[in-house]
Amino acid sequence: MSILDPDTLNQCFISWVNQIRDHQDLQIIAIHGKTLKHSYQSSTDKLSALHSVSAYATEQGISLIQKKSDAKKNEVKAVLDIIDELQIKKTVITADAMSCLGKVTDKIIKKGADYVLQLKANQALLLRETKAYFHKVRRDNPELIEKNRYTETTSEHGRVETRQCTQLLVTDWFDHTDNWNKLTSVIEIQRTRYNKTTHKQTTETVYYLSSLKIDPKLANKTVREHWRIENSLHYVLDVTFKEDDSRIRLKNATENMAILRRLALNLIKISDKKGSVKSILKQCAWNDEVRDLIIIF
């Protein structure tokens, strides 16, 4: 495993994924980074742990690609490589604030996709301007806020969450939007969470840049779907596949095993077998017929 070329193995994985992908219109693809906590070479050099960036088709529930990154702070190159290699036409790409850069939007638009990128303090001027714009519109044109707002309430995991999504067109009022290709709208998400056990309520407001036209329901769905990469990919890899506990770390073995875990997870997700990932993995270990059913889909 350690002598296999990870780039070649990854290309085989990508080719296979492109064959099984459901190329539906407006498929949402989330891009996010993950560090394998115990993959460092020695206890004195924990920064050598493998940090990779993954792309995840949120609605189909499959991992599309994994790219090794030099470090957590240097994810952008891996993100650009992923956009180059994936077939993303007619999709919406979502990513966190680290990827909220003009060169990332250039790549996405040139490949025929749209984007929703989180806006944080690393783009301080535009963030300040966006907050001021929402404040101005609320003060001067409250009817525009009502027209372009979508509210959703869900109750799960012992809490009630209300998400209020407001989406406004980018106008000439903005001064710091030139670097972002086809920047069409700005999105504000206000999340209010009520804990049924502690009876405490918390509220947070986050902002996003997007090339999407005004559709607050779609904008809300896209932002919410992004976090499936954490809940349905990274969490499953950590808890079910015990990826963070793995001490595989020689040469290319760490990266290759990460690719194979995603391959195994994809096989389970696209199979007709019912049950949790954990239970299906156990059945594959116990029963040759079940394992054949998963592998030879």
Automatic annotation (TrEMBL):
Pfam families: DDE_Tnp_1. InterPro entries: ISAs1_transpos, Transposase_11, Transposase_11-like. It comes from Psychrobacter piechaudii. One of its GO terms (biological process) is DNA transposition. GO terms for molecular function: DNA binding; transposase activity. This is Transposase DDE domain protein. Residues 29-267 form the Transposase IS4-like domain.
